[in-house]
Automatic annotation (TrEMBL):
This is Bifunctional diguanylate cyclase/phosphodiesterase. It comes from the Bacteria. Transmembrane segments: none annotated. Residues 24-278 form the EAL domain. It comes from Oceanobacillus locisalsi.
Length: 281
């Protein structure tokens, strides 16, 4: 009986694998076409200062409207794009798109907010990354004060010195640097102290269920204190309800991002937010 069951499980697993492999194969195959045919677009998720109750910045997140699969989440296609080396072109498209958007908002008379851009590690590490980055800011006359970058811990593995140098120049020019998804990886104190980053983002996996799980509360408080003691701003992502929001406010968190305040918004909806900076939970 045990034997049969494991055989069925295996067949089920095998079938699932084939489906997901086929899907991954098609997605990889279609990335280039997606870029060429304008199937990608950006959405913007507000970050709120709980103290002031206003929107203080936002995160740019890529979306892909695939002709067969409808919306494919970046959680699925970004890793595939990384495998293919396509992330450089996609990442470049993202930076240009955000710069163009900032220029458009400015020319329409909106008061801007800082926009954070996610950079995948391999994109950051390509040789001409900073050149392309600055050229987009220049082309669209974007002041560096309006751009933040979100990087993850994986970037520092094996590349500490090189990455540190590049970040230093970016920071000198006024770009704020955030460490994304903190609390999921190595979360090493040693390099956090060395790096002198501006913003620490607590990963949503630590926020989910924080009101019921005391260990999560303790880890989150520790991270907030750690960030603060290093002079960083601390942001919580994935805040979905009032309970979570209230707990985090007690910890003196600087910004809150999550469905409680707002899902990622299309450009017209984000433009409305820019008019007043107000948001209703
Ligand atoms: P991330 O940078 O950690 O972004 C946060 C993710 O959490 C986003 O998912 C956002 O929509 C989602 N989120 C925000 N608030 C909540 C909430 O309250 N509840 C829940 N359940 N989720 C929430 P998204 O947009 O699907 O992006 C997933 C990941 O894909 C991002 O994680 C980031 O690593 C990557 N990504 C997205 N856009 C880009 C991009 O333009 N370039 C690169 N390189 N990566 C990107
Ligand atoms: Mg992010
Ligand atoms: Mg994150
Ligand atoms: Mg994340």
């Amino acid at each position: 009986r045990v034997k049969n069951r494991s055989k069925n499980d295996y067949e089920f697993f095998d079938r699932e694998m084939k489906i997901s492999n086929q899907r991954a194969f098609q997605i990889k195959n279609d990335l280039r076409m997606g870029l060429e045919n304008n199937q990608f677009y950006m959405v913007y998720q507000p970050k709120v200062s709980p103290e002031e109750g206003i929107v203080t910045s936002c995160e740019a997140l890529i979306r892909w409207k695939h002709p067969d699969f409808q919306e494919i989440s970046p959680g699925e296609f970004i890793p595939l794009a990384e495998e293919l080396g396509m992330i450089n072109d996609i990442g470049d498209w993202v930076i240009e798109n955000v710069c163009r958007q900032l220029q458009q908002w400015e020319s329409l008379g909106y008061d801007l907010l800082p926009v954070s851009i996610n950079l995948s590690s391999s994109q950051f590490l390509q040789v001409n990354f900073t050149e392309k980055f600055w050229s987009h800011l220049q082309t669209y006359r974007v002041h560096p004060a309006w751009i933040q970058i979100e990087i993850t811990e994986s970037l520092f593995i094996d590349n500490m010195k090189y990455v540190q140098q590049i970040l230093e120049t970016m920071k000198e020019q006024g770009i704020k640097v955030a460490l994304d998804d903190f609390g999921t990886g190595y979360s090493s104190l040693a390099y956090l102290q060395k790096l002198d980053l501006d913003i620490l983002k607590i990963d949503k996996s630590l926020i989910r269920g924080i009101s019921n799980v005391s260990t999560k509360k303790e880890i989150a408080t520790t991270i907030v204190q750690l960030g603060k003691s290093l002079g960083m701003k601390v942001v919580a992502e994935g805040v979905e309800n009032k309970d979570e929001m209230e707990i985090l406010c007690r910890y003196d968190i600087d910004e809150i991002q999550g469905y409680y305040y707002s899902k990622p918004l299309t450009v017209p909806a984000m433009s409305e937010i820019l008019k007043t900076k107000k948001i209703v939970p």
